[in-house]
Amino acid sequence: MIKASICTIGDEILIGQVIDTNSSSISLALNEIGVKVSRMVSIGDERNCIIGTLARELNENDIVIVTGGLGPTKDDITKNALAELSESTAFKMDERQLEIIHNLLSARGLDVLDINIAQASVPDTCEVIPNRLGTAPIMVFRFDEKRFGHPATLFSLPGVPFEAIGALPDILEDIKSHHSLSDIYHRTVMTYGIAESALAKMIEEWEDNLPEDMHLAYLPNPLTGVRLRLSIYGSRKEDAERRIDAEIASLKGILGDAMYSEMDDTLEGCIGRILTENGKTLSAAESCTGGTISSLITSIAGSSAYFLGSVTSYANSVKTGVLGVAEEIISRYGAVSSECVAAMAEGVRKLTGSDYSVATSGIAGPGGGSDHKPVGLVWIGVSSEKGTETFCAVFKSNRKRNIERFASTALNYLRVKIVNELK
Amino acid sequence: MIKASICTIGDEILIGQVIDTNSSSISLALNEIGVKVSRMVSIGDERNCIIGTLARELNENDIVIVTGGLGPTKDDITKNALAELSESTAFKMDERQLEIIHNLLSARGLDVLDINIAQASVPDTCEVIPNRLGTAPIMVFRFDEKRFGHPATLFSLPGVPFEAIGALPDILEDIKSHHSLSDIYHRTVMTYGIAESALAKMIEEWEDNLPEDMHLAYLPNPLTGVRLRLSIYGSRKEDAERRIDAEIASLKGILGDAMYSEMDDTLEGCIGRILTENGKTLSAAESCTGGTISSLITSIAGSSAYFLGSVTSYANSVKTGVLGVAEEIISRYGAVSSECVAAMAEGVRKLTGSDYSVATSGIAGPGGGSDHKPVGLVWIGVSSEKGTETFCAVFKSNRKRNIERFASTALNYLRVKIVNELK
C-alpha cells in the first residue's frame, strides 16, 4: 500500500496560534484514492529541521506532502530548504505562475511587488503545477531510488487552506498517474444522544462479530454526536460496499432512532434533506445559542429553500417585543424556562410563517447561574402545527462548548420531531 | 531550552475525519512557560508505530506529551503501548480515578461498566494525575538518562479536547517543578483590511531594523485579519515587554487604524470592549451570513450587556415583515443591494432600540449569482443615530469561507464606525 506523510511548516502552528486544518483536508483526499497516511508532522520555520524531517519522512514514505512556508514574507523559508534537500544549484522563473501573480494582484487593484515576482522563482530540480488561487506555485520534487532506497515524491503546497485544498485535484491526478493504488473503503454512520461508552456496550456483541479485515472507530464530536467509522482495507469496492451495508443494517436494528444517518453527515444536513424532500420550512428563535443554530442551518448550500429566518432574542425586550413572549411568562418563570422557550418557538413560527421552529434559552456561562438554574442549563422548544414540546438538559463545560452542545441538542430534538411527524 | 514534542494518537486524525485541536492548546500553554515545542506528530492506533514514534520523540526531546487512544473502546491501545515502552510488567488500579469514574457516571445516571472500571487500571511504571473531567487517568512516565541519553518525561492525556485542556494546569506544574525554564515572550497585534504581502511591504523597513533576537511572524486568518507576532527568546520579561512596547508603538504609527488591537484579539472582542466602555448597545440583521455575526458577537462572555439581538432574514418575507424593508426596495434594487442593507440596518436598530446595528446581504454560493451580482458579492450596512453607511466587497471562495469573510468584513466596518463616532 502506498504510504504518505503530511508535513506542515510554520512557527505559528508550533506556538499554537494557528490550528492546522490542511493535514485533515489532505488526508481525507488521500484516503479516498487509497493512499494510507502514516503520519502527520508539524515543524517550525527552521532550515535544518525542515531538511532533516523531510528527509526522514521521504525515507519512510512513498509520498510526502508539505504545506506552508511559501509566503512572500521573510519568515517563509521552505523553498530554500527544498532547494538544498533536492541539491538544486539554480532557480528558474515559472512564466505561467508569474502570469497568474500579475492577474491576481491586478484584479485586486494591487501593485506587483518584487517579493510577489520572487514567488514565481523555483529550484530547477522541481516541476511546477500552477496555483490558480494564489501567488505561490505548487512544486513537485521526484527523487529516484538511489536517494531514499525507493522512488519518492515530495509535493510542496501553499499553507493558505483555501489554496492548499484547491491544489489537491492536481496532486491526486499526479499520484494516480504514477502509482497503482490498492483499495480502501470507509463508511461512517452518525449517532446522537448516546455517550461513547454506553454506545460501545450496546454494540459490543455486534463489534465482536465483525470480520477480521473490518475495523471500527468511535469518533465523538459535540456538534454531530458519536460517529462510527467502518473501514475495510484491500477489498474491492463493490464487495466492501455490500459487506458494510449488511453490517450497518444490523447496527441500525440495534441503535434505531439514535442512528440519524448512514453516511458522514451533520444534524443540520440531515434536517435540511428531510425538509427539502417534504417541502416544509423552518425558523429559529435563539437566546443562549446566539445565532449558532441559524449559522449551522445556513452553512448548508440550498438552505434558503427551507430556512425562512431566525430571531436572536438576547435581550428580554426582544423576546417580548419581537417574538411576542408575554411579559408575565418572563416575570413568573424566568427567561430560562419551559414556558419561555415554548412561547419563543411559537412566536417565531407565527412571525415567519414557517412549518417548524426551534427555540433555545439557557445559561452558557461563565457567569449568570444560580443553584436553581446552574450554568450549563438549557431549555429547548420545538414547535409545529401539531404542537409544541420542550426539553431541558444540563452540560458542564466552558462557554464555547456549552453553546455548541446547546445547539446540537436542539437540532437533534428538532430532527426527531420532524422525522416522527413526516414519516 | 527545554524542548517538547506533542504526539496525538488516533486513526480518526490520519484519515482526516477529526481535526487535531489538542496540539494547538497544549503548545500555547507550553510556550507560555518557556518550553519550546519542536515538533507535533499525529500517528494511528498501531502498537509498533506508537512505540517507535514515542521512543524517537523521547530521544530528541525532554518532554513528550501524548493525547488520545485512552478511550474505553477496543480501538484505543495507547495504554498497552505505553506499558511496553516503559517495560511495565504489571498493571495497578488507581483508586482515586476509580472513585472519579463512579462519581462521573452516577451523576449522569449511567451504570459503571467493566470497560469503565478498566480505565482506572494503569501500568505500574507510571505516576497518575487524576482526571476530574473524565474517566481516563493522566499518566506520567519518567525515564532516566540511561534510557534516552537524557532524562525524559512522557505525559499521557485523554484525547477529548475538554479533558486534555483541563489536565494542562497539573502538567505545567509538574514541568515547572522538574525543570528550570528559560524565558520566552510573545506579543501579537491585530490588523484588518490589508493583505499579507501589502502589509509586508508597508512595514519592510521597520521589520529590517528589528533587533537580532526579535522574530516577526505573519499569521493571516479570514476571521480576524493578519495577526503579527513578535517573539523574543532568552530575555527577561520586563526587559522584553519594554522593548516590544517600543517596537509596537512605531508599528502603530505606520499602520494606523488598520491595527485594531495591541494584544491577541478578535474583531468581536474589540467591539465588545468599546461598547461596554461607552455603555452603547448593538443589534444585527443578517441575510447571507445566516447568524454568523450574531454567533461571533455572543461568543464573548458578557456580550448580553451590549448585544440586544438580531434577525436572520433569510427569506425576503422576513426582511419586509419583520425588519420593515419596503417591498419596493427589494423589487427595484434586489435583496443584495446598498438600499436593502441600509433598510435592514435601520430596521433592526428600530426594532431592538439599539444604538448601533450591522446588516449583511450577499451571495455566499455555490449557486445564485449573476453577471451583475456574482457569487461572493456582499453588501454591508452599519447604522447609528448619526447615520447609515453601506459598503460592498467581493470574495472568491467557497460558501463557508465566503460567509466567514462577509462576517469579518462587516464586523470591521462596524468597528471603524464605532471607533470614529465614540473617540
Q: Please, could you describe this protein's structure?
A:
Chain A has 17 helices and 17 strands. By secondary structure, chain A is α/β, with parallel strands linked by helices. Chain A folds into three domains: 3-178, MoaB/Mog-like domain (Molybdenum Cofactor Biosythetic Enzyme, Chain A), CATH 3.40.980.10; 184-261, 2-Layer Sandwich (Alpha-Beta Plaits); 267-422, Alpha-Beta Complex (Maf protein), CATH 3.90.950. Chain A has a six-stranded mixed beta sheet with strand order 2-1-3-8-7-6, sandwiched between helices. A five-stranded mixed beta sheet of chain A has the order 14-13-15-16-17, with helices on both faces. In chain A, helix 13 links the parallel strand 13 and strand 14. In chain A, helix 2 (22-32) packs parallel to helix 8 (161-178), helix 3 packs across helix 4 and helix 12 (267-278) runs parallel beside helix 17 (399-422). Chain A is globular, with a radius of gyration of 26 Å. Strand 14 (307-312) of chain A pairs antiparallel with strand 14 of chain B.
- The CATH superfamily name of the largest domain in chain A is MoaB/Mog-like domain
Structural class of chain A: alpha/beta
| Helix run count of chain A | 17
**CATH topology tier name of the largest domain in chain A:** Molybdenum Cofactor Biosythetic Enzyme, Chain A
* Overall mean confidence score, pLDDT of chain A: 92
Strand content of chain A: 15-25%
Sheet bearing the most strands of chain A, described? 6 strands, mixed
Relative helix content of chain A: 40-55%
Any idea what the shape of chain A is? globular
Rg calculated over all Cα atoms of chain A = 26 Å
* Count of strand segments of chain A: 17
Assembly status = homodimer
